[in-house]
Amino acid sequence: MKHEAAQLSRWLRRLPTRVPSAELRTSLRVIAGRERQRRLARRNPGSIFQTVLQTVFRAWRDRVQVLSEHVIRSFVLPMAGGLSSAVVLFTMFVVPAYPLRVPGAYDIPTELTTKVALKVMAPFVNSDGDLVVDVRVDGQGRMIDYVIVSGGVVLTNMQMRRRLENVLLFTEFTPATSFGQPMQSTLRLWFSSSHIDVRG
Fold first, then answer.
1. What DSSP character marks residue 99?
2. For residue 153, how many other CB atoms are within 10 A of its CB?
3. Beta-bridge partner residues of 118
4. Which of 25, 32, 69, 148 has the highest Cβ tally under 10 A?
5. Closest by alpha carbon to 160, among 194, 196, 131, 195?
6. Domain boundaries, the chain
7. Are the CB atoms for 142 and 175 separated by under 8 Å?
8. Is the pTM of this model over 0.90?
């Protein structure tokens, strides 16, 4: 083994010596100078901080790029499809069902609320002039209170007032309704010597 190594060493010494070219020496010196500057820059704390910031920024930029390419694309396509489907379904089902107002056509009101009405009433003759009474009707169509608006003769004449009260107690009313539910309401009655006028 030692004999072979010695023989190899003798053969290598017999080889001609190669001298590097001037261009190779210059390029090696430039590379060595750059490496020396890089090592000196690493010793500076400011350059170390700048290097760390550059590394963190690159990592953050790479993560944002991956997120935008993979995650956001996987959300944007289904969201756009769902939104367009919702718009199409909305225009197909809701818009044709929406009532359009035809010019010149009469609008038919819906009966969401109804007023109180007089159903059956006994005759009441007021010979002393006109009498106006506001009658408060409950949800079952019965009088619960009344107020004499005009016709002061009834207030002083107790007999006529009792007759008015008896007539109102036995009068049947159709109660007012709101969304189909009966409710309290007020009805105005006009008693005159010739007829009875009713206003809600």
1. P
2. 15
3. 173
4. 148
5. 131
6. 23-96, 113-199
7. no
8. no
